[in-house]
């Protein structure tokens, strides 16, 4: 999932933060805000691409009823994505 651009965005964000810490002026705050926004947007888009690829990989005929089941994410509350009735 990690590509060549991910470390670039992390380094850019960390450099902007260090510059702001050493000299907190208005232009450094703006640079920090922009670098945080760009990094967040990049990682959000990468996550979206990964999730879409995972969904496509499993297909619609899969027995997986919740995308969280195939990504390894655990939450205490889960959304019902299918209604199944079983006698038992």
Distance between the ends: 42 Å
| Low-pLDDT runs | 75-88
How is the main sheet built? none
> What percent of residues adopt helix (DSSP H or I)?
55-70%
Strand proportion, as a percent range, falls in under 5%
Q: What's the number of helices? A: 3
Order of helices and strands: HHH
- Oligomer type: single chain
Mean pLDDT: 76
Shape estimate: elongated
Rounded Rg: 20 Å
The computed structural class is mainly alpha
Write down how many β-strands occur, each being a DSSP E stretch of 2 or more residues.
0
Write structural notes for this entry.
It is a single chain. With 88 residues, the chain is mainly α. It has a domain at 10-40. It is built from three helices and no strands. α1 (5-22) packs antiparallel against α2. Residues 75-88 have low confidence and may be disordered.
Brief summary of the model shown:
The protein is mainly α and 88 residues long. Helices cover 64% and strands 0% of the residues. Helix 1 runs antiparallel to helix 2.
Topology:
Blueprint: H1 5-22, H2 26-58, H3 67-71
Helix pairs in contact: 1-2
Labels describing this entry:
disordered C terminus; 64% helix; 88 residues; single chain; mainly alpha; 0% strand; 3 helices
